[in-house]
Write a structure and sequence with these properties.
Blueprint: E1 2-7, E2 16-19, H1 41-67, E3 78-80, H2 82-95, H3 98-108, H4 116-130, E4 137-139, E5 144-148, H5 155-165, E6 168-172, H6 177-184, E7 199-202, E8 207-209, E9 221-226, E10 232-249, E11 254-260, E12 265-272, H7 277-283, H8 286-295, E13 297-306, E14 308-315, H9 317-322, E15 345-358, E16 384-386, E17 391-397, E18 402-409
Parallel strand pairs: 5-6, 13-16
Antiparallel strand pairs: 1-7, 1-15, 2-5, 3-18, 4-8, 9-10, 10-11, 10-13, 11-12, 12-17, 14-15, 17-18
Helix pairs in contact: 1-4, 2-3, 2-4
Length: about 425
């Protein structure tokens, strides 16, 4: 995520670059947490983390529903990491004051429910959960801040960033573009036009996992994908026969399947009726997603899932304004005096970048005996679930009920940066 800010009343340019890879666990809970209710210290913090987590789940769906609304003219394929957005706004809240601080908390769903210290400490504890190493899956958690050597960053902001988010702040001479690019951009591919900005926050999140039941390349074939009632494309489609958990939502009329990775993370695929993806996406709630996992039934299934690969870079400024963060982008009202008192800081724009690659994963060659069990059944005897029309997808941490990524696929044949596709509006309000 790219945060583009401007520093006023100063002729010398200042830039900040924040590189993040964030994964936050979500635990749904009801009711506010209060330490005076007789809870032990550990139970109080568990309740607090759950309260913050619940707000993250709700925030994730609200952001997606704003971005994917037809009035926003979004690209056909769309993916966001709402957890990264949530956590980065939490880090902005560390340095925000007055009205700006209040607007961030309202948008996060936390006004008058937790203190600043409780919010950031809960985020710290949540980050620790998903940062734990595990076999056959990888979370990268890297956060680094680069700031112009002329800036006077408050010591307490540096201390809090390190304490709660494990983010260090390094100084760099932004008046030397060549050295700046060598130092910073070797860490991440930057597609924003930073050279026209004064201060930049960059957020990057990634996850790599291995299918619990691998799709095999020999089973992938070209199949029809219905874009709408009139148009169909032929796309590479993976096929797997095995035991899967499924659910039929008769209320909103969609089929749901869980495609698990090794560990506690799953790909949740939601396949509505043709032409109904926008409506179904707007009906998603934390409780509905919880119900999917609670009421799924396991059965033998023939699953057909198209291969998908695309990359996203777009502005969030307009979306965040719709969600109530108005003073953030105002040269008069924005208050980030908790970051630096040396000059007025204004948030000029927010950029978010996400990418996905859903395909067959081959095992790494090694000298290990590989014993597998394959089902040899009549394909015609098993129920089928075909993602052969526009579908929704979530990458979800089951134990902690976390939406790590959420998106949709309307055309699997499209790839690349949506902002480079003709007719898209992903760089709205830049």
């Amino acid at each position: 995520m790219y945060f583009v800010l401007q520093r006023c009343r100063c002729e010398r340019k200042m830039k900040i670059l924040l590189l993040l890879q964030l994964f936050i666990s979500l635990i749904l809970a009801a009711g506010p947490c209060k330490p005076n209710q007789g809870r032990s210290y550990n139970l109080f913090w568990e309740c607090l983390v759950a309260e913050v987590s619940e707000s993250q789940m709700d925030f994730a769906l609200r952001v997606y529903q704003h971005i994917s609304a037809p009035t926003m003219r979004p690209p056909p394929n769309l993916l966001i990491s709402p957890i990264s957005i949530y956590t980065t706004f939490s880090m902005l809240a560390l340095g925000a004051r007055s009205r700006t601080h209040k607007e961030i908390l309202i948008a996060l769903g936390l006004e008058d429910t937790v203190t600043d210290e409780e919010l950031h400490d809960a985020n710290r504890k949540l980050l620790q959960v998903l940062s734990q190493p595990a076999n056959d899956m990888e979370f990268k958690d890297h956060k680094e801040v680069f700031i112009d050597e002329s800036a006077k960053i408050l010591p307490e902001y540096k201390q809090n960033m390190a304490q709660y988010y494990n983010a260090s702040i390094s100084t760099i001479n932004f008046n030397n573009p060549e050295n700046t690019e060598k130092t910073i951009f070797k860490l991440v591919s930057d597609r924003a036009d930073n050279k026209k900005q004064n201060m930049v926050f960059l957020d990057y999140a990634s996850f790599q996992g291995k299918w619990q039941s691998e799709f095999h390349k020999e089973n992938t074939e070209k199949r029809n994908f219905m874009l709408n009632e009139e148009k169909t494309k032929i796309v590479p489609t993976m096929h797997q026969q095995g035991m899967y958990k499924t659910y039929k939502d008769t209320e909103v009329e969609c089929d749901v399947v869980e495609v698990p990775y090794v560990g506690n993370i799953s790909l949740l695929v939601i396949v509505p009726k043709l032409g109904d993806i926008d409506r179904v996406g707007q009906t998603l709630t934390p409780q509905r997603i919880k119900n999917y996992f609670s009421f799924m039934k396991t059965s033998m299934l023939d699953l057909y899932l198209p291969k998908v690969s695309f990359d996203h870079l777009f502005s969030l400024k307009y979306i965040m304004s719709l969600m109530g963060m108005e003073s953030l982008f105002s040269s008069e009202d924005a208050d980030f005096s908790g970051i630096s008192k040396d000059g007025k800081i204004q948030l000029a724009d927010i950029y978010h970048q996400s990418s996905t690659n859903i395909e067959e994963l081959e095992a790494v060659a090694s000298g290990v005996t590989d014993t597998r069990v394959y089902y040899n059944l009549n394909l015609n005897s098993n129920p089928e679930l075909k993602a052969d029309r526009p579908f929704l997808m979530l990458i979800y941490h089951k134990v902690t009920q976390t939406i790590l990524w959420i998106g949709r696929v309307k055309d699997p044949s499209l790839a690349g940066i949506p902002g480079e596709e003709e007719g898209t509006n992903v760089k709205r309000q830049i």
